[in-house]
Amino acid sequence: MLASFHDILPHWVFTGLYFSDTFIQKNPDIVKATVAGLLKSFDFIKNHEQQARMHMPKYTGMDLDTCMISALREYSSPYKPKELLERQRDVMLQYGYLDKKLDIDHMIDYSFLPEGLRRSE
């Protein structure tokens, strides 16, 4: 049985896009273009799933048959409520993946998202 992590842990955030403050200050156009390109690729995958799967063998090393039936990441809104991120932080603290409760406010910046995506769907 193939299941995605989103089937097992709904709404769990598995990754993010990170830039240092210095890079953002020096290269805001690159950051905007990277975010726009990533959103465009997510839209393509969501709306052209079979075509997108054809690219998977090149990047995963898996055979095409496996790529055609494997679970794909859920591409929902890039905006994630602070409460959800804090809950995940607290779970990581509880299980020893973090040594102390970190303030995440300075780590979250949705200003490079198109305005319509800066809050939940």
Written overview of the protein:
With 121 residues, this protein is mainly alpha-helical. The protein contains seven helices and no strands. It has helices at 5-8, 21-26, 28-47, 49-53, 56-60, 64-69, 82-94. 0% of the residues are buried. It comes from Desulfofustis limnaeus. This is ABC transporter substrate-binding protein.
Low-pLDDT sequence parts: none
Order of helices and strands: HHHHHHH
Largest sheet: none
What is the end-to-end distance? 30 Å
Tell me how many strands there are.
0
Summed up, the helix count is 7
Radius of gyration: 17 Å
Mean pLDDT: 86
SS content category:
mainly alpha
Helical coverage, percent range: 40-55%
**Portion in beta strands:** under 5%
3D shape: globular
Question: What is the structure about, briefly put?
Answer:
The protein has helices spanning 5-8, 21-26, 28-47, 49-53, 56-60, 64-69, 82-94. The chain is mainly α. The mean pLDDT is 86.
Task: Give the arrangement of secondary structure elements.
Blueprint: H1 5-8, H2 21-26, H3 28-47, H4 49-53, H5 56-60, H6 64-69, H7 82-94
Organism: Desulfofustis limnaeus
Protein name: ABC transporter substrate-binding protein
Keywords:
121 residues; mainly alpha; 7 helices; 0% strand; globular; ABC transporter substrate-binding protein
